[in-house]
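Re: the request from the purification team.
They wanted to know what the chain is likely to look like in 3D before they choose a buffer screen. I agreed to run a prediction and write the result into the notebook, where they can find it.
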Amino acid sequence: MHDPRPATPANSWSRLTPGITARVAPLHAIRPFRRRPDAQSGATMRGQYGVGRHSLQQRARARMLGYDATRTCRSGRSCASTPMNWEMGSDMIETDVLIVGTGPAGAASSLFLSKHGISNMAISRGRSTANTPRAHITNQRTMEALRDAGLEKQCMALASPGTDIEHHFWLRSLGGEELARTYAWGNDPSRKSDYESASPCSLCDLPQTQMEPILLAEAARLGSQIRFDTELLSFEQDDAGVTAIIRDLLTNETIQVRAKYMIGADGARSRVVEQLGIPLVGQHGLGNIFNVLVDVDLSDYVTHRRGIFYQIIQPDVSAWSPIGLFRMVRPWDQWIAVLVVPEAAGTPTPTTQDFEKRIRELVGDPHLSMKIISASMWTINDVVAEHYAVGRVMCMGDAVHRHPPANGLGSNTCIQDAFNLSWKLALVLQGKAHPKLLDSFNAERQPVGHQIVKRANKSMMLNGTVWDLLGAGTRGGSTEPRRSVFETREGRAALRQALDTMKYEQHAHGVEMNRRYASGAVVEDGTPDPGFERDPELYYQPSTRPGSPLPHAWLGTRQPGPRISTLDVAGKQRFVLFTGHGGEPWREAARTVSERTGVDIKIVMIGASLDYEDLYGTWQSLSEIEEDGCILVRPDLYIGWRSATLPAEPLRALDSAMMQILELTSAR
């Protein structure tokens, strides 16, 4: 079937490398069949999905996304193929939120909005979810968001556990001399307790190819419309919403979508950011790197020294790629060979045979059997958007923060962007909050984007220092510099110091966990900022000061049962008020404020013989309030307000805080 699309960079690359298909075959999985009002919630599009063209391929894709392509819809009708203007002959689709992009940011937005009961439509010009496992490290803060959505177990079942990504290695070849190694990703014995005490969730390695289908399948189950082979052409916004023109790339049909809000999650070449004219600050094109996805069994080389990165320094072997990294995708027979191209090499155009030869050199086996699945080239960027929103259009993910993969911050930041925005959009769309609440998305997340872009690029520089010390900075006779770093006291000390600084990539727990927000959706309590007692990039410091993430503490119930985290009794698309002994008046205050605002506020009392027991005294030590005080937690598990003690008028105090968070103070 003819593909009417212009060649993408991936398609162009496949022409330069015979035998490599950089995009998978068309898999048009989920096609909206019809929509109807849901009798219980009043929402629309409750899982009415069918399968359209290319039935065998679609059925395979639908199975991956958790659907039976042959099933009937709830109405009893067959879920048959339908044209794009599926709305009973209408030439316009209406939805609350149009999401452009189905990568981690777009898929997570669709999921979290659906959890809040908000109708949404996510489109992607791609033919399927990601076909290369670019993003993979999934940190504890992201796993907490997925746990809140009920997907933690499903994700962990497909992920590689932290014990499989225990080390980073530097070698002369995979079968040759090992030059150095470091612990990574919470596996340093001196750091394990930091990770274990910080969260009920574990860090893991979950490739993007596995994560995206999980997110989208759950979003679709909840009623989201997911459309592949659909591109955004243009959009306009007014005081009431956004009108977008989209095109079905299979039929070349165009149609209008009318949404109240739009999310631009369309990646590093974002058309949404471009049309909005959002300034991008920083530098593009700081280096070229090839990613080669390859099926190759390397178990003989790695099972005795498990890790996620095996960095191989061979300047005397290859001029166009003196440094190669093997990144584990699936233990231990699928990998990405990351080939670093020095500036002096320009922009090479290697063939499939060149890649195979280079991979065999990196392993040290000229007869190694392999199957190259795809290859692509990407550039190192150091770019963040000046702001994330214009009017009714909010942007997130790689569209607004573009950086190398060091520290594994990419998909994590994307998903956390979505978790931050979804509850705010939901309350605004439900008429329970003023639209000004949405300003807090930029105020809270743009500084995070700036931080992670700078951290990732600094970590790339740290890697470069190690590479240079091991001889990668020279050509030809580079064996001598490599030897000298080990043969002199100064060289060994320099290498050890460089390896020690790698903890800012491999154990930057604070970068992952220490987000503290300042915005209109956070009500300050007048206490001074406590700062950080230890390096805030390396170490997580829990706090209940407004703007901080809710600390994790294990709780128990009066009835026998498994322990539960404070994060488990919070979240779930609602506000939660924590208090303890003497805090009973907060219960009535929460009930009254909830009735006034229409916003669900759950009250949780922690203490002996209360709702939950403080099993180890951890909550008492972390809460930073008296027993009769309270902590108000937002739906995204961040603290919106606290009161150190029970005031004379708890209703007035809580009502004032909620009005400020919802930006309703001026409306009264």
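For the purification team: Residues 471 and 480 are 8 Å apart (CA to CA).
Please add any questions underneath this entry.
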